[in-house]
Write a structure and sequence with these properties.
This protein folds into two domains: about 5-65 and about 165-344, QueA-like (3-Layer(aba) Sandwich), CATH 3.40.1780.10; about 70-150, Beta Barrel (Thrombin, subunit H), CATH 2.40.10.240. The chain is built from six helices and 17 strands. Strands 2-1-17-16-14-3-12-13-15 form a nine-stranded mixed β-sheet. A six-stranded antiparallel barrel has the order 5-6-7-10-9-8. The protein is an alpha/beta fold and about 350 residues long. It starts with about 30 loop residues before the first strand and ends with a strand.
Length: about 350
């Protein structure tokens, strides 16, 4: 098989098609359906997703919850502005973070947020220049963070988010993500009820989304790119539901690339799952053989990103790029607050 280059996954995207705000009605976004066998594409509204699912199919959703991980503060010594992004909890009050400007955040630097309600001290510099920060505060961490933190929207979204809950799925449960599993943003409680009534199973897994998802692929040869590890967990109940769907000849359809990466990391050669947890740095690109999933609901991803490589592994690079070109022509909305695609 020929070596794939990062530039093989480039496509032209007019900037005005990058969705800056979520729709008022989550399920009113558009839905492109791509048949990966034929390459045929059709256009729908997301709430019609039930008509493409059969009784017995199992939808796999990521129930991670985004924390308001973006903190704006000042350096205690100079009063200079600083921005901290919480990436991963290392110990109770110690977080791995991304600090801007990083050069001014040497070990020993003290950072102040909310007029001193939260204070952080940089204790170490780790991989990729990330900083370890030990925080001190009065009261309960979650409440302090909720009052001072902002949702860590991706850099391509320049509008301020009016409602924090719109960057959260309606089924978000376990806190720990620095970004939303955005394919799930299209689901409403009503839509989940309709799926249940139709006999479609839902299984919830957890993968805490890190910023590695958004990091650009700097290597031209895909084999040289290294993914950042993200924590995942699969309960016994979820594993049993997914295994049962497969045993009964039904499809397993992942909602989002995070659910996909969780299943593909955890399953055995036959696509079977057991209760488990761990870290995954799986990188899925063309040539990968899927073991667990039969279909994928996902948003439209950035050119040359690991996510566009993942969907290309499922549907074929040429088919994905042709579908993306059609989405551009049809003026679909792209990225986190944008429209959706079902690859079946």
């Amino acid at each position: 098989m020929e070596e794939l280059k990062t530039s093989d996954f480039y496509y032209e995207l007019p900037p005005e098609l990058i969705a800056q705000d979520p729709l008022e009605d989550r399920s009113a976004s558009r839905l492109m359906v791509l048949d990966r066998e034929t390459g045929k594409v059709s256009h729908h509204v997301f709430r019609e997703i039930t008509s493409f699912l059969e009784p017995g199919d199992c939808l796999v959703l990521n129930d991670t919850k985004v924390i308001p991980a973006r903190l704006l503060g000042v350096r205690e010594e100079t009063g200079g502005a600083v921005e901290v992004l919480l990436l991963k909890r290392r110990e109770r009050d110690v977080w791995e973070t991304l600090v801007k400007p990083g050069k001014k955040a040497r070990p020993g630097t003290r950072l102040v947020f909310g007029d001193g309600r939260l204070v952080g001290e940089v204790t170490d510099v780790v991989e990729e220049g990330n900083r370890l920060i030990r925080f001190s505060y009065e009261g309960i961490w979650e409440e302090v963070l909720d009052s001072l933190g902002e949702m860590p929207l991706p850099p391509y979204i320049t509008h301020k988010l009016q409602d924090k809950n719109r960057y959260q799925t309606v089924y978000a449960k376990y806190e720990g993500s620095a970004a939303a599993p955005t394919a799930g943003l299209h689901f409403t409680q009503q839509l989940l009820e309709e799926l249940k009534e139709k006999g479609i199973e839902t299984a919830y897994v957890t993968l805490h989304v890190g910023l590695g998802t958004f990091r650009p692929v700097k290597a031209e040869n895909l084999r040289d790119h290294h993914m950042h590890a993200e924590y995942y967990q699969i309960s016994r109940k979820a594993a049993e539901k997914i295994n049962q769907a497969k045993e009964n000849g039904h499809r397993v359809i992942c909602v989002g690339t995070t659910s996909c990466r969780t299943l593909e990391s955890a399953c055995n050669e036959n696509g079977r799952l057991e209760e488990c947890c761990g870290d995954t740095d799986i990188f899925i690109y063309p040539g990968y053989r899927f073991r667990a999933l039969d279909g994928l609901i996902t948003n439209f991803h950035l050119p040359e990103s690991t996510l566009v490589m993942l969907v290309s592994a499922l549907a074929g690079r040429e088919r994905i790029l042709a579908a993306y070109d059609e989405a551009v022509r049809e003026r679909y909305r792209f990225f986190s607050f944008g429209d959706a695609m079902l690859i079946k």
